[in-house]
Design goal:
Helix content: under 10%
Number of domains: 1
Oligomer: single chain
Number of helices: 0
Distance between the termini: 39 Å
């Protein structure tokens, strides 16, 4: 990658972060920029994995969840990172890159350029616990890497996670619960509008699938939804998932065993971009 015009580094609650009653905005108009939420020095180990930090950065809305402790929960704020143009790199640990937690809203919007997104868990348009997380990339040949869970359009526990990629030849390296995945009554939506893309993921809860998980509660009656859409270009899908292919429409059963009636998962791939009259 070429030399960065600007380099922004931090650990946690940075680079477009909004806490309770708060709004955080980082706005960069153009240039080749690097955004790092340090995940090497473990000063803020995550409950999800103590080998990585809680970043809560790069477009993150966070609230205080205390239903299992003192009961004094506080709804999250709004965190936004907007980068107008340039070949940019984003790197974080757990919670980042357009993420919402506990009634928070997090947005990362990148306007153009060949960008790289790297994260671990709850990243790249992900959310948990009544929140919303959105990652939007307007154009460019981009690279998305997430290694552990809940990424690239994934919603958990009555939340919405959404990744919108408007154009370019992109590569997605994804874990389980990704690429349009709903978990525990969450909604996950993934949409790549056009371009020749590559999807690298193992058979799991991915590419338009959902999982409620818990039985014997009201969760069985509530919606859980995963949607995957690739609406233009010739794409490459994993050999181990033969249903996902060019010019195809598919549904997937819920991941609960046996699947529950309110678990919905679907995907679509079309080589020619969709027109309004096609919808």
């Amino acid at each position: 990658m070429e030399e960065a015009d600007s380099r922004r580094t931090g650990f946690s609650m940075a680079q477009g972060y909004g806490g309770t009653k708060g709004y955080g905005l980082l706005l960069d108009v153009d240039g080749n920029d690097v955004y790092i939420a340090d995940d090497r020095v473990l000063d803020f180990p995550s409950p999800q994995t103590d080998k990585h930090n809680v970043s809560m950065a790069q477009g993150a809305g966070y609230g205080r969840r205390a239903d299992y402790t003192d009961g004094h929960s506080l709804a999250g704020g709004v965190g936004v990172l907007v980068d107008g143009a340039g070949n940019d790199r984003y790197s974080c640990g757990v919670f980042g890159q357009g993420v919402g937690y506990w009634y928070g809203l997090g947005i990362l919007s990148d306007g153009g350029g060949d960008d790289t997104y790297e994260g671990i868990w709850y990243v790249q348009g992900a959310s948990a616990h009544f929140a919303v997380g959105i990652l939007e990339d307007v154009s460019g040949d981009d690279r998305y890497l997430a290694t552990m869970n809940m990424a690239q359009g994934a919603g958990h526990d009555f939340s919405l996670g959404w990744l919108i990629e408007s154009g370019g030849n992109d590569i997605y390296r994804a874990p389980s619960l990704s690429l349009g995945a709903g978990n525990a009554n969450g909604i996950g939506i993934f949409w790549d509008a056009w371009g020749d893309d590559r999807y690298e993921v193992q058979p799991s809860i991915t590419l338009g699938r959902s999982n409620i998980g818990a039985r014997g509660s009201l969760r069985e009656r509530a919606l859980c939804l995963g949607l995957f859409c690739d609406t233009g270009g010739k794409d490459v899908y994993p050999e181990g998932l033969p249903f996902a292919r060019n010019e195809a429409l598919w549904t997937q059963p819920g991941a609960s065993q046996p699947p529950m009636p309110r678990e919905y998962g679907a995907g679509i791939d079309c080589e020619e971009p969709l027109k309004p009259e096609d919808l």
